[in-house]
Amino acid sequence: MNNKNVEVIAPTSKTMCLKKTLETKLIKACAYCRVSTDNEDQKTSYDSQRIHYKNMIEENSDWVFVGIYADEGITGTQTKNREQFNQMMNDALNGKIDLILAKSYQDLLAIQLIL
């Protein structure tokens, strides 16, 4: 009985899922937070945005937290004086960020125009 038979077992869907999971790249996520005035209510909103987005990113198992980019008391009509916004865009264009979360529709439009 020295006859050795080799049986080839094709991968199952579980095996393929495991392989895909191991190969899946985490999404590098950040948030951009901004308020346009120095009003105390706006300060609370600013702090709330930072906490909310940090928790949201860290709780998502498909995302890795890159950071929070935030400009306080800066106008939303221009990006020239928004240092953190400009740094974030630079990082995104250089592949350090895959996903940007933002509260303001105006900020999302600025991001789309740059990308």
Tell me the layout of helices and strands:
Layout (H helix, E strand, L loop, with lengths): L12 H11 L3 E9 L4 H20 L3 E10 L10 H11 L5 E4 L2 H10 L1
Parallel strand pairs: 1-2, 1-3
* Rg, Å, rounded: 22 Å
Shape call: elongated
**Which sheet architecture does the biggest sheet show?**
3 strands, parallel
Average pLDDT, rounded to a whole number, is 75
> DSSP helix count?
4
CATH homology group? Resolvase, N-terminal catalytic domain
Determine the N-to-C terminus distance: 68 Å
**Low-confidence spans: pLDDT under 50, at least 5 residues?**
none
What's the CATH architecture name? 3-Layer(aba) Sandwich
SSE string, helices as H and strands as E: HEHEHEH
Tell me the number of structural domains: 1
Strands, count: 3
Q: Strand arrangement, largest sheet?
A: 2-1-3
The CATH top-level class label: Alpha Beta
CATH topology: Rossmann fold
| Beta-strand content bin | 15-25%
Helical content band: 40-55%
Q: What structural category characterises the helix and strand content?
A: alpha/beta
